[in-house]
Write a structure and sequence with these properties.
The complex is a heterodimer of chains A (362) and B (141). In chain A, 49% of the residues lie in helices and 13% in strands. Chain A has 16 helices and eight strands. Chain B has 141 residues and is an alpha/beta fold. Chain B has four helices and seven strands. In chain B, strands 1-2-5-4-3 form a five-stranded mixed β-sheet. The termini of chain B are far apart. Classes of the chains: A alpha+beta (362), B alpha/beta (141). At the A-B interface, helix 3, helix 10, strand 6, strand 7 and strand 8 of A face strand 3, strand 4, strand 5 and helix 3 of B.
Chain lengths: 362, 141
């Protein structure tokens, strides 16, 4: 007998509102229907009715976790239009913020995954480490979220004491290598809950345009930091972890290894932070008017590629602001990952795609 | 960068994507004088193992919609600039499943009809909500 089980839009198994309808034969999921849009705020519409400075603040509210990548992408697109060139120090600071944000997002995801696996000790460990990242972000920007760091032509705040951030980094790196990685890679409980569960084949990942760690856990090795470098990423050495199993365990491994790579990038950027100004200040009129044209910026957010397309008509208000977020592409893959799986595994499987409904709905 | 641009221009020709490509502000652009066959392009991009990235809709003064179809080929972003006719354009969702949500969203925001779809279920809005919620003129009413 077939059952239709609605989960959400508001449900304890979901971190944010969306609706997943699971069609089950007994305890086995035979199909799934997804409904999104419960966080729709019309950000694109609003961005086309505000000036560029207001736009930076607005797009940072697309997401509460990866807020920095939205203002970074938007500013990079506008910089291509008005020709503003951020100084080298600003490019390094942008990388530092982006990697701290990636760590904060990956710790959050790892904690939630651990909770859904039934491993609350690791949930606590992840969130303790996440607090250290939040402390570092707060020390740099003054905020735990919505950092307000990016501006057209650079960044708003300097990193006065890189050594303080390096000290926090040491503690985080220890936690990742001594606690998170051994548990995610070797623990039998984690393996029994994750190995072979919620498989996304490379074929389906490609067909659905999946991006980020989700795609990299299914054997697709693209990372915008490497494929189309921006900010100062072409100055740093780092690996792009790729797994081929496509299951929940592969996603755990990719996330854990990416945290180590982020620490490596942060260390390089903080130790070699160049001297100099943190922004170029264009003349007042140029700050508010952007030459006509279209520019595209792509950034590797914690969940994958973000695309901003900004079209200017020469006034102080953009004609068009297009925001394509990673979860918008990744969410539809949940249908393939839950097919044939146990109903009890569905919450973990959908969470393992690292969904962000705020980003999806905008 | 100039050498890289010239080299990729040649690659685009070798991939059978024609000439007339221009690198500008973050993407390679193709704006041919004749309308682009979006379905043939989607099939071709599939054969090239390209990743579908997005469709970006931009409202034009003549009430038509410009649609930029964006694909990623080995980290290079290709934008095919197309236009609707009577706010219609053929669907590519049957050829490229990744385009399904993007077409549904574009339908809601810009009232573009993607012909050939079995249905265009609401994605961000709810059944019965008005179409074209991002259109400048309609929104101003």
């Amino acid at each position: 007998m077939s059952f239709r089980i609605p989960i959400g839009p508001y449900h304890p198994a979901l971190e944010e509102p969306y609706k997943l309808e699971l069609i089950c034969d007994g305890e086995t999921v035979s199909d799934a229907v997804m409904n999104v849009g419960f966080n729709f705020r019309g950000i694109e519409y609003l961005a086309e009715r505000r000036n560029y400075l207001q736009g930076i603040t607005l797009v940072e509210r697309v997401c509460g976790i990866c807020s920095n990548v939205h203002s970074l992408s938007f500013c990079q697109a506008v910089e291509q239009l008005n020709g503003a060139e951020p100084p080298e120090r600003a490019l390094y600071i942008r990388v530092i913020l982006a990697e701290l944000e990636r760590l904060h997002s990956h710790f959050l995801w790892s904690g939630i995954a651990a909770k859904l696996i039934g491993f609350k000790t690791i949930f606590m460990a992840c969130f303790t480490l996440r607090e250290k990242v939040m402390d570092a972000l707060s020390a740099i920007s003054g905020n735990r979220v919505n950092y307000g760091m990016n501006r057209v032509g650079g960044v708003n705040r300097d990193i006065a004491d890189p050594q303080a951030v390096l000290n926090i980094l040491d503690e985080m790196e220890q936690g990742i290598t001594k606690t998170i990685i051994p548990i995610f890679l070797n623990d039998k409980t984690v393996e029994s809950r994750c190995k072979g569960v919620g498989i996304l084949s490379m074929e389906h990942a490609k067909a659905m345009g999946a991006v980020g760690p989700l795609a990299r856990a299914s054997g697709i090795g693209q990372d915008m930091r490497r494929a189309a470098p921006y900010a100062a990423y072409d100055r740093f050495h780092f690996n792009v972890p790729v797994e081929t199993a496509g299951d929940v365990q592969a996603r755990l491994v990719v996330h854990a290894l990416e945290m180590i790579e982020s620490c490596g990038i942060l260390r390089q950027a903080l130790m070699h932070l160049p001297e100099g100004p943190i922004h170029t200040t264009p003349p007042t009129a140029a700050r508010f008017k952007v030459p006509a044209g279209t520019a595209i910026s792509r950034v590797e957010a914690p969940r994958g590629e973000v695309l901003y397309q900004v079209t200017s008509n020469g006034t102080d208000i953009p004609e068009r602001v297009r925001v394509r977020t990673p979860t918008f592409m990744n969410m539809a893959t949940v249908r393939f990952t839950v097919l044939g799986q146990e109903l009890a595994d569905a919450p973990l499987i959908q969470a393992s795609c690292d969904p962000c409904y705020s980003c999806t709905d905008r | 960068m100039t050498t890289e641009i010239v080299a990729f221009e040649k690659t685009l020709q070798e991939l059978g994507l024609g000439d007339g490509w221009k690198w500008d502000k973050g993407s390679w652009w193709l704006t041919p004088p004749e309308p682009i066959d979006v379905r043939a392009t989607a099939l071709h991009m599939g054969k090239l193992n390209a990743r579908f990235v997005a469709i970006t809709a931009i409202e034009l003064p003549d009430k038509e919609i410009r649609l930029d179809y964006q694909w990623d080929v080995d980290g290079k972003l290709l934008s095919f600039v197309c236009g609707t006719v009577a706010r219609q354009i053929p669907t590519i969702a049957d050829l490229c499943p990744a385009a399904d949500w993007v077409e549904r969203e574009t339908h809601e925001y810009f009232s573009v009809e993607f012909t050939g779809r079995e249905s265009t279920k609401p994605l961000m809005t709810r059944a019965g909500d008005p179409l074209g919620i991002n259109l400048h003129k309609e929104a101003a009413k």
